[in-house]
Amino acid sequence: MIQVKDLREGNINALCEKAHQLMAAGSESRDTLPISVCNFKKLRTLLTDGNLYGSSKVVRKIFDELTCLKVLGMSGSRVYSIKHIPKKIGKLIHLRYLD
C-alpha cells in the first residue's frame, strides 16, 4: 500500500507498476489528482482525501483505464464537472465499493 502526500508526477511514476493500493492526499488546498494515477494498471484500491481536487478528465480516465479497481473512494475530493457517474463505470467489473 502506498500513501502519497507529495503528488508531483516524478514521485509517483516510479511506483506505478507494482502498486495495488493507493491513498492520495493533498497537502495544499489546490493539489490535484495527477493524470499519471491512471498508469497504475494493477491498482485495486484508490482513495483520495478532502484536500484533493480532481478534474473531470482524470475521473473519466480512471473509469476508462483502471479496470482492476475493487475500491474507489473519492467522496471527500472536490471533483469538477461530474454531475453523474460516467457510463464507463461498466468497465470496472471488479468494483465492489464506490464512495
TrEMBL record:
Superkingdom assignment: Eukaryota
Protein name: Uncharacterized protein
UniProt source species: Dipteronia sinensis
